[in-house]
Design brief:
Helix 5 links the parallel strand 5 and strand 6. The protein has a five-stranded parallel β-sheet with strand order 7-6-5-11-12. It has a four-stranded antiparallel β-sheet with strand order 1-2-4-3. The chain folds into four domains: 90 residues, Arginyl tRNA synthetase N-terminal domain (Gyrase A, domain 2); 218 residues, HUPs (Rossmann fold, 3-Layer(aba) Sandwich); 100 residues, no CATH class; 120 residues, Orthogonal Bundle (Isoleucyl-tRNA Synthetase, Domain 1), CATH 1.10.730. The longest helix is centred in the middle third of the chain and has 42 residues. The protein is 52% helix and 12% strand. By secondary structure, it is an alpha/beta fold. It binds one RNA strand through helix 2, helix 6, strand 9, strand 10 and strand 15.
Length: 585
Amino acid sequence: MKQHIANLIQQAIDTLKASGDFDTELVANIQIDNTRDKQHGDLACNVALTLAKAARRNPRDIAQLICAHLPASDAVTKTEIAGPGFINFFISQDATQAIIGKVLEQAEKFGRNNSGAGHKVQVEFVSANPTGPLHVGHGRGAAYGASVSNLLAAAGYDVQREYYVNDAGRQMNILAASVWLRYLQQAGETIVFPSNGYQGDYVNDIAQQLHTQAGDRLKHAATTVMAGLHTDAPEGDKEKHIDDLIERAQSLLGDQDYRLVFDAGLDSIRDDIKHDLHGFGVDYENWFSERSLDQDDQINRAIAKLQQQGHVYEDKGALWFRSTAFGDDKDRVVKRDNGQTTYFASDIAYHLNKFERGMDTVINVWGADHHGYITRVKAALEALGIDPARLVVKLVQFAILYRGEERVQMSTRSGSFVTLRELREEVGKDASRFFYVTRKAEQHMDFDLELAKSESKDNPVYYIQYAHARICTLIRKLAEKDMAWDADIGLAQLDKLSQAAEIDLMQQIELYPEVIANAAKNHEPHQVAHYLKDLAANFHTYYNAHRMVIEDMQLRNARMCLCMAARQVMANGLELLGVDAPEQM
RNA sequence: GCGCCCUUAGCUCAGUUGGAUAGAGCAACGGCUUUCUAAGCCGUGGGUCGAGGGUUCGAAUCCUUCAGGGCGUGCCA
């Protein structure tokens, strides 16, 4: 409809140019807005105001001219010039009612578009270290990333969802050592657990399973294990202590058995994360292993590639990437003086790999604490000859957790955290996913667990689901009374839908495609959440004001067509947010 | 110190990319059901859009200064 109106205005302007009323050089940026107040019609255009300066004329005069030259249209019943020079359009009921047939015909495809056709985009999100279960802090990134992915798919993009598994590096070695020490405890050794190890119960569970599988084969005497280590905190250095333990584990177990312990932790936690996310309605096309980069020597290749371009130099025994040449504050080490590559080097290789896999655009959903990282990663891409604009980083602010007044601290290491699984069990998948995604990502968010639980009945997601379920109930009621809904009869009688509540609902439905397009374009799933609340409100108002299960067959079917169109849009929208659309509540 | 993000009703948040009288939900108050789900509907009250200055026909939105809050600023991952 907006496009139709814009065309009418463009034609009017062209006519005026031809007749010499407007300068032919005049370029009009025609923007059609939905009106806030129905007294201003249904759609409004501010083109007269934007043209006023260039045309050196009073905007109301310009509006007058445009209105006088608008081609006739069945969809428009009236135009008005209002305020400083807005042109307001009143849309005919026929044109509005047509949306119902469109929705019913396109069904689950309604609202989709092809703006991203032929474009490959990867969305990488969550990517939490596999050193422990996901906690509620990860939930927001999961909900956001999944919804953005769905939106992009709805806009026609070829979307790949990816989880980057940090299965290399020191944190994972600390986990392996933690697992092994717990294993030793279960094998009967007396071990003082390191303060810097992973304390969570899940480590015990993994160790127990390892013990069941491997028996005492991986056992060494506590005295041998602990001999000659740096002392732990508080007297000693907890970092040195844990590093010594890792080294001890590696030397006592040998490569193969150490890998066994390491993988026991990694596999168990990765699978747990996978299951957890699946239960949260989040599934990935690809789980990318950081370690695979190293195995394929991709890290060294990436460094070599930077080196060829002359962006790497040596200083104090280390290799540095000259990121300052690309806007970074300081240069960054890619290979340490001990010969080990840095995490950043892995990241360079990883991002290079993404683009080598043929992605046109890569979207990274990162926690807000990683923002300092954006510049250097983009710098690396530019240095490698890849347009940094093809990497889009979406920062998701942390949810600050409260239990009533009390702030809940989150730490994987100490084992004191609320897991995503607990949240799902306490609050429910639908409510938590909706809650996360209702706030826009860059907005700080307070998440009160008590409130989320206690108010779960007042949670807006139920309001929408309830609207959906109510319509499903109507269908059941009609079937019971042998008055089954007949779409064709209803579609032929749409002109009977002229109540204010009906018009409002139809107009709201008509907005859906542009909401989806806009939300996809801007990566803002919260727009969908807010839209659905408004749609549900329109429906509830209608439902309370008018009855659908009535004797009048024509009116009944017409109203049911409208209800079914509303139901379809709610189902489509909820699907994008990963929320179920229940048939009864 | 420097950099990024944020500040809108008592609380939690929207605000269609610069448009008309700034909106929802929760909380408060008053109404609605012998009839399709009251997890609903209708109504009332509630604002210096953090503060000042600027840009223009027009600013919550753009620029600037300041205040407050969050995060970052490793040869950690």
